[in-house]
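In the previous chapter we treated chains in isolation. Here, by contrast, the input contains two separate entities that must be folded as one system, with a combined length of 495 residues.
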Amino acid sequence: MKLLTCPVNGTRPLSEFVFGGELRAMPDPAAVSDSAWAAYVYNRSGAPGLKKEWWYHSPSGTWFVAERNTLTDQVARTYLYGQENQA
Amino acid sequence: MPLRLLKYALSRKHPAPRFFRDCTEPKKSYDAVIIGGGGHGLAAAYYLAKDHGITNVAVLEKGNTGRNTTIVRSNYLTPEGVNFYDASVKIYEGLSEELDINLFYSTRGHFTLAHTESALRTMRWRAEVNKHVGVDSYVVGPDDISRACPQLDISCSGKAPILGALYHGPGSIARHDAVAWGYARGADSMGVEIFQNTEVTGLDIQSGKIKGVHTSRGYIATNKVLSAVAGFTPRITNMAGVDTPIVIHPLQACVSEPMKPWLDTILVSGSLHVYVSQSSRGELVMGSSLDPYEVHSTRSSLDFVEGLTSHMLDMFPFLSNVKIVRQWAGMADMTPDFSPIMGTTPVEGFYLDAGWGTWGFKATPISGKTMAATMANDKAPELIQPFRLSRFEDYDLTGEKGAASVGH
């Protein structure tokens, strides 16, 4: 069984978690051009590597950030959003 | 194995037939380079040579092909998709003869099962679009399904009773490796050079134009490069500096031990995440939905087999003693609208055949043909315009909910 560590609830089976996609900075919709906005909406960094991702622990309703290598599927660390430096 | 077969293995008089030359030393330059020697890349090479007379072509491949579940059909949801996949089915039907290789192309009829009212509504929608475009496709009730496949438990163990299905007569299966072998041999016989175990390490782009390809076998100069690398697409597009919406999810499949023929249709259930057919060898070929998160790996998992087989047993309880003999995963290059990305890119001479997610095998012939035309004319044919990369920037998506593994 694969495991993932929720920063609030500790290590739990992966089946309790939902993948929420890559953590990305949103540009100001009022300030950017249409094509830059389309690039934000659709384009992704699809190549493998260590990425910051949103994950959701569904029994407790906790959203958090996981740093995961998408080539090896190894999670480097997890932390609540905004608490990167305390993790 | 009968011992007398051994004498053929050891005999020089009866060498194993080669389908294409064993190329190892690339020339300094080619008219076109195709990255990816799967079905799509080899088909593009074949049609470049056959339709357009461009034979000075190198195909580079670092791995393998054939991680799909071999289903061919055209009962999609959008008119653009139906037209495109129908053109593919029509080429497939005559392909064994054209390539002079037995593809075991077998037209079985294809049922997409509906377990809910909303799924049935989507089936009706698809049937109407299909009929409008001239594709044989209509909605049938549970009795028709039982007649075609008496072994199926229509109530699915009482959990998800089948209300109806979308029936698609031309739905077929084919031997997927033979498709690649056939195109490879055809391309090779016209002069195309195929380099195995050759990895692309970089692209040479100068002032927005492609000039060459860096490979593990050295530098190759060329003005036209096609990327047809499925799950490796983001790595190649990164080399070209081209942004795409593609994300990689593993798609898993497995086969059972061989049985006497009993299943002569192809069955798909979106709700139960199962698609199944019986191959000419008697194995059940089974696939499921995408893995739920991004991984660049072809590892398979126990979770997948457990989930898939439990749903298979809901449909066919009598299979409980049948063993799974092999499982595998492919890297599916998913797009947000479940349509491929085909055609030109912002880099001149760099062409993309990607975003094939879970629907690539059935499109092999037509994608090869249309990408060859794109490379020869530097312009994508009308048929694949709806799949252009710039559709995202234009907010003009081609939402294809008829794709495999899409829930309804």
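The longest helix of chain B spans residues 117-133. The interface with chain A takes residues 233-235, 237-238, 243-248, 292-297, 303, 333, 336, 392-395 of chain B (CB under 8 Å). Compare these points with the single-chain example from earlier in the chapter.
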